[in-house]
Amino acid sequence: LRVESNAVQAPWRMHQQTFLNQLREITGINDIQVLQQALKDSNGNLELAVAFLTAKNAKVPQLEEATYYQTALPGNDRYISVGSQADTNVIDLTGDDKDDLQRAIALSLEESNRAFRETGITDEEQAISRVLEASIAENKASLKRTHPEVWSDSPNPYDRKRQDNCPVGLKNVGNTCWFSAVIQSLFNLLEFRRLVLNFNPPANAQDLPRNQKEHRNLPFMRELRYLFALLVGSKRKYVDPSRAVEILKDAFKSNDSQQQDVSEFTHKLLDWLEDAFQIKAEEERDGEKPKNPMVELFYGRFLAVGVLEGKKFENTEMFGQYPLQVNGFKDLHECLEAAMIEGEIESLHSENSAKSGQEHWFTELPPVLTFELSRFEFNQALGRPEKIHNKLEFPPILYLDRYMHKNREITRIKRDEIKRLKEYLTVLQQRLERYLSYGSGPKRFPLVDVLQYALEFASSKPVCTSPVDDLGASASASGTLPPQIPPSTTEQQGPSSSDVPSTSPVQRSVIHKPFTQSRIPPDLPMHPAPRHITEEELSVLEGCLHRWRTEVENDTRDLQESISRIHRTIELMYSDKTMVQVPYRLHAVLVHEGQANAGHYWAYIYDHHQNRWMKYNDISVTKSTWEELERDSFGGYRNASAYCLMYINDKEQYLIQEEFNKETGQILVGMDTLPSDLRDYVKEDNKRFEKELEEWDAELAQKTQQEKLLSQIPRTQTVQAGEPEYLEQPSRTDISKHLKEDSVQAINKALAEQEDRGPEAIKLEYTRLLKLAQEDPPPECDYRLRHAIVYFIQNQAPKKIIERTLLEQFGDHNLSFDERCRNIMKVAQAKLEMIKPDEVNMEEYERWHQDYRHFRETTMFLMVGLEFFQKKSYMEALLYLIYAYQNNKELLSKGPYRGHDEELISHYRRECLLKLNEHAAALFESGDDQEVNNGLIIMNELIVPCLPLLLVDEMEEKDIVAVEDMRNRWCSYLGQEMEPNLQEKLTDFLPKLLDCSTEIKGFNDPPKLPSYSTHELCERYARIMLSLSRTPADGR
Length: 1036
Prior knowledge:
alpha+beta, 8-stranded mixed beta sheet, 18 strands, 10% strand, globular, ubl conjugation
């Protein structure tokens, strides 16, 4: 019986099986009859059905005859994947009054129909609007925060400049990582990109908007075109999608707040795009049915063949995203097999069966095939959804031949064969288990080992006495009493311990003496052995045991080989040439990290031209590998797993093919691929960014010029009494003040050796510093802190810069307090005047001294941070250590001896974060409002802003593990019972913790550093380093 497509039924009946699958996933109820009745009673309203099924006191509806597997309304055969959660305003249906239920259903349908008639917007689309508006609202709210942020966007535009042809990222404008993941996946489909970029609004666009739905589509397409154009040709590292998101938000009005669901957004996005292209297609049609490129690209068809109560049926349905259950399956093919077969499929091949079931067969696959992995299920006990973290593997190339309608006969044969093999496999595995777990008690052992133990026992040297008698004899011989042996249960029991006098030596408590009382007598056999066994008995027994053991080994090996052979046969069942003709290549994987009600999304997208995987994580776009994708996407490891898979037809090369110039045949890249209007738009944006770069360069040039002018002022005017120390003063003359004592000592040493050798003091000082630079000091001594020249020598600074630095030290007017020093000063000043301007690059000279000041600042940050850490003042220590790490990283980028041990700073920075996270979690667990708020302040203002620093370097595995530990600690609360206000605060906070991009932001104000002389700095540095060596840290 083929059901005709013009049969008029309720809309929900068109996709009843889809709705049933979703109800099963959301509620966790597997009884098909209960689900059908709920869906019927709610007239197909999924939210009411969920509310009915999950109501605390809801009764199981009585089974009524259901109309099953019917077709659609005329002209509407779209398969819709509904992913929206139940509305929070659903009427309470937990009572027994059926009239209330009917009124609620009628009211819901009436409101839904009225809203659609007035606005052209469905309930589902209105639900989408709530999260979009929430995203924008959160972004705006973040700009109005009164508390100071640890981080802010880098004022340096070069930090936001695109490097070469690196892909452009998308800024997260407030819980919009889902938007970035989906848009980047679609943008990197070149055919989709071309469709969007070359979309021309209809000529009569001004007259078009007939309702709010149509009024939304064209402005959204305009902003999407602009966004795609910027992703193609922008000179920025990342671009802001706020205008596109604003359009989506403005299309709907709601006050609800939650983070959007990727599959739900993808479905609605394709709907909006399809509507926009449909308007254009209808305008351009020439008497024929218009073709919609979105439908051609993303929608396919399948044939549902089924039996209901012995009656066969067939109907064709259209699908976009294809939903797949994850729970209970190990790989994608198992998910697909389960999705394509419902119920007892044997009934399809029998004439007189009353069983029900159906099969799905693809009749037409879309060029872009998207699988929605259902990783969430409703926990009825807790009354909330939970994420499924099970591991699910999927291949880079997926062959879909076995699911095609044209191959259904051969597929059925192979499925029957696989079923038979699996049944046989189960029998073999049960037999093998009996060999590997032998015995009838709670403890079981491999049979081959049991036989081996029996053989070893039989072959042991026989003994003629019992082990108890042997111990008694040994005890008597050594002068001690043997332990009392409890009477047998068959003998008359003796007097109780209470009847025996306490003075009895037999009842004296045993004193355990190590290495004396427990020592094994030398003549006691180490293993049990038979008392009596003849040579003939032993020979027969050994022969039997050897033979049995060999037989068992052979049987076990044969079973294992048979099982492996069957597994291999099943794996290769669909590998013949006829079943590998429909290859689909994995294009994108959308990953979700977190729990059901909070998390972060990113995407792995395959670069088909560079043949490599790329990771798109908001503004961060980095090279990746299949191994990293497996780790983050398969699940079963951490809280991250794939949520959506996008495959493309591997034979349809136009999907990923570059454009060519029709005249020259050259490949079009970058701006050349854009239409003229978008090219102008991107050029204007690039001009604005270039102007920003020019203004930054001009500001730096002005600062440099001012420093040059200051350096040309006579030194007598620049050196004032009470000047700040080296760390506070950018002038290079400060180095002389710190080293005045060293200079005087060098002069005195030279004069002591010979009265007229005062000028040799400069040479002696250089010799001393060179020796320090060449020594290998202990960890607590860093000679670079003693003098800039030690730092310069170790980092191979030009000789002229070292010479000028040394001469400026002795040419400083601070030394002119007696005749000897004045003579040395005059010599140094004379030599300075002899240095020609072209011999020393003053800009390079200034850079070296700036780097040295930077090095001392970094040392101070590190030292103060470690001092706070040892005092357990982790909040204070964290900021100092973060600045120390960032400054040190910048120094080490110029050379290995420019900074300090990076691993040391990284360790204590990480420890600070972990300890603060534990403290914040403890405050949250207390339940006290004030302490909970304090804990969340620590997380929001200290921990969350610092996480990008730990994630930016993916080679630092310890940092990545630390971030996962911190996130997992807070995610673990999702499965616990807590007060509603705590649950609300946790739900609000978790997206911030999980939605953490790897953008490195600039600091607002570094912490204030104290001023120390060189001697004080070296002394405090040595003290803190010595204390660290006495207290080894974990992981160091």
